[in-house]
Amino acid sequence: MDIIIDGYNLIGSDQGMRGALEQKRDWLIHRLSIYKTMKEFEITVVFDGWRSGWAHEAKEKRDGINIVYSRQGEKADDVIVRIARQKGNGCVVVTSDREVCNAVEKFGAAAVHASEFNDILRNLERPSTEDENENSTARPMRGGNPNRPSKTERRRQEKLKKLRP
Predict the structure, then answer these.
(1) What is the C-alpha to C-alpha distance for residues 21 and 62, in angstroms, rounded to an integer?
(2) Where are the alpha helices (DSSP H) in the chain?
(3) Of 21, 35, 40, 105, which is least packed with CB atoms within 10 Å of its CB?
(4) In sequence order, which residues have a C-beta less than 8 Å from that of residue 110 and are 6 or more positions away?
């Protein structure tokens, strides 16, 4: 399974965006590398460079984590959607941006809220139970069984379960 992460979104949901961003990026990469050794998923973190980035998209690999900086004038959201379109239904996108969630779900990718993934990263050492937060974000359906989550929500919950260590 491939995980595509909106880097600044994930940092912001945990630590806020004030202060030294470089240290926060390093902290995130370090936590993700620990997570990668446990789960062995392919992880790509996308950082925004649209305001003060380079003229071209920059890519690097550090501690087994693929890092992408969007080019100047291009938002990380656009890069995330493009990568999710290429990877299709085998990937999970970590973001809090509703527009990005809606866009990637059209390609069959599952969207996980940044705060949910931050909970997973914070609890790497603590084993979680299988059904922890199982239906915490289930939305009611418009028709049919009102207790059954939507197909999109069921897919998201399946992927979220696989993400937990």
Answers:
(1) 17
(2) 7-14, 21-39, 76-87, 98-105, 114-122, 151-163
(3) 40
(4) 91, 92, 93, 155, 156, 158, 159, 160
Q: Supply angle C-alpha 98, 58, 13, rounded to 5.
A: 35
What is the residue extent of each domain of the chain?
A: 2-130
The vertex-131 CA angle with 94 and 46, nearest 5°, equals 10
| Predicted local confidence at residue 2, as pLDDT | 94
In angstroms, the Cα distances linking 58 to 55, 82, 149 are 9, 15, 39
Q: What per-residue confidence (pLDDT) applies to 16?
A: 72
- Alpha-carbon gap, residue 31 to 34, rounded angstroms: 5
Q: Which CATH code of 3.40.449, 3.40.50, 3.90.1150, 3.30.70 fits the domain covering 2-130?
A: 3.40.50
Position with higher pLDDT, 51 vs 59: 59
Q: Which residues pair with 44 in a beta bridge?
A: 4, 66
Element (H, E) at 110: strand 110-112
